[in-house]
Request: fold
Amino acid sequence: MDLKDLRGIERREFIRWSALAATLLGVERARHLEVLTQVGGVAMADTAGAAAKISPSIHIVDGNGGLANWTLVFPNSVVATTATATLSSHEPGKGVKGSKLDRPGYYCTEAAAVFEALPASFQVTQFTAGTSNAHSATPPQIIGGGASMVAAIASIQTASSTLVPSMVINAGLYGAAAGAPAPAVVPNAAGLIGIFNSQAAATLLKPAGNPEMLQKYHATFLALNAASKSPTSKRHFDASKVAVNLLGKQLGDALTPTTADLAMYGIDGTTPPAVQNMSRAIITTLKAMSMGLTNQVALPGFNNDPHGMFANGKTMAATVAGAIAKMLKGVYTHADSLKLPASGKKISERLLLTVHGDTMKNPMNENGWGDGSPQNYLYVIGSGGGRLKSGAFGGWSAPNATTDWIPETGETVARGGAGTVTGAASFASASAAVAYAVCGDMRRVGDFYRGPDLAGVTNVSLV
Reply:
């Protein structure tokens, strides 16, 4: 069989293998595509080039009431504008209305200092989505037809071939969806690095299932090596066998968070452990994305059930909000310094970071910070290159009055109004909007979603 005859899974596997080899040899994306054209034909290069439309994603899932921590950073309109001391906030009435949002939405003062300095494409979308499910560590996240949001997005992202398509810290955060790749599961952020070392070795040492195809893979490897501009790579890789131990060391060193990385994310002695853990996982993930090694990670966020957040005043809440804001600033700064090999764009221009959880708790009463919220949230940071509209959809119009939103128009109206989505349907529509932001193809989203049109929350002209 000739490489030009590869189809389906075999073609995707070859592209994945060649992308890894190109990355480790230091071959630029354009030269990688040239080599693919030479050895596999224009169709194979076009398949690899299609990956440029896919956005990478990071999914933070909070359990046991942990989502409530994020409401400190992204207050609803009532908490943001009402100076009532007993509201569940460290600064009730002091929220800052985002000036770069497509729809009205608010940040706490610490987050406003971050996001007001960032481009419109990297703001926050706040969907009122889903229902309270206290106290679950793996809250439901269905996009439609029994498919979970994270797994469905991973399925869509397979259009961009990577070494490890999806990674999860806690297998229960992934779910299932048609065509979703099996995720690589690790116990913690440090485990993410080990994934790539072992997968790199396995992928490079077993590229093909028969001697004839092995020769094709080897010839391609030599062509990529010839295209490499790195004398160091040439010296180590001119031999017929790949020095796997060297590759593992290179990947491990390249993906490990450095002291400078942690400082970029604001990590210090006051940082809550959950924020430290998230930051370490995100640092490694962004580095891996810049090497074309992965498209997605799902990780636990807060799992702290913060009923006592305000028991001794507002200080603890202020510390948590400040730490999250610093982390998000670090995410953007880091992503803006790295590029996606498939498109050449900065990761910050494409990245989507979602946050959801089991319950947002009661935003209107800090006393014991109860679980009795009739609503829940899905936050999305980034827009996939402008495909998703920013600002708040749904929320609260008064302390005892909640609102819903209409997917077709984006309007926020009284709860239960005509055309609104609520409960499971609201999470399905919100997560489908995220899926569209990942790929820019509503037909692909339709493989999982059967709800209302999403014109009011997406920019469908942007692909």
